[in-house]
Specification:
The protein has about 220 residues and is α+β, with helices and mostly antiparallel strands. Helix content is about 35%, strand content about 10%.
Length: about 220
């Protein structure tokens, strides 16, 4: 993961199935690169192979999760069709992209116009939440703690505050998305198979139990 907060997150009681942790261990991307280097592994020299199923199937929507605005953009690609609207002809939402710390835009999907707020960086997150507290309305918000999103996470290769590096990572993600044959999460055949064979309906009892979590106010000592 690009996020070192995941190391703590997997220890939470809410992310256990009975006595079994939902995730065994978390490695950051920087740690994985270090392990490969220490093991003398060159990815360019490895023979071609296939990913373990179902992890070999991915969509452009999954790729753009890594940058600010990407999660809500990926959701918009799917939610309209799930709400009964026609497939989107345009999959890229310019108003959700870019490095502005706080972005606001309106997007129409399935005949409904949604007001969306996107923030990255904790200072901008505070501004967005204070605006909501003061009466500003949004249908959807997305907040990422790291500037630029997960591409600049604490577990990523160091960028030393160089914004150009973060922007280059951002463009790399969008370029990867554009090159994918599948660009919507709900069109991923592996994900569809998991729901059809095991989880049941989207948002159903089993999917809710295994994929959703809850949060509560905690007292600080």
């Amino acid at each position: 993961m690009p996020c070192i907060a995941k190391k703590y997150e997997v220890t939470r009681e809410e992310l256990r199935v009975g006595e079994v942790p939902a995730v065994d261990y978390v490695l950051s991307t920087r740690e994985l690169a270090l392990m490969a280097r220490e093991g003398g592994i060159s990815f360019r020299e490895l023979p071609e192979g296939e990913f373990d199923a179902p992890l070999g199937e991915s969509t452009g929507a999954g790729v753009i999760f890594g940058t600010t605005g990407g999660v809500v953009e990926a959701a918009l690609r799917t939610v309209g069709e799930m709400a009964g609207g026609p497939p989107l002809e345009e999959l890229e939402f310019a108003g959700l992209r870019g490095f502005d710390g706080l972005k606001e835009t309106e997007v129409t999907v399935a005949g409904r116009t949604l007001k969306i707020g996107v923030a990255h960086g904790l200072g901008n997150a505070r501004r967005l939440l204070e605006a909501i507290r003061d009466g500003e309305h949004y249908d959807v918000i997305e907040i990422m703690a790291c500037p630029g999103g997960c591409i600049a996470g604490g577990g990523q290769p160091y960028h030393h505050g160089n914004i150009d590096i973060i922007k280059a990572r951002m463009e790399g993600i969008y370029r990867e998305d554009r090159g994918k044959p599948l660009r919507k999460s709900h069109t991923n055949p592996a994900v569809r198979a998991v729901y059809e064979k095991y989880l049941g309906e989207v948002g159903g009892p089993r999917a809710h139990e295994l994929l959703h979590t809850g949060y509560k106010v905690r007292e600080y000592i």
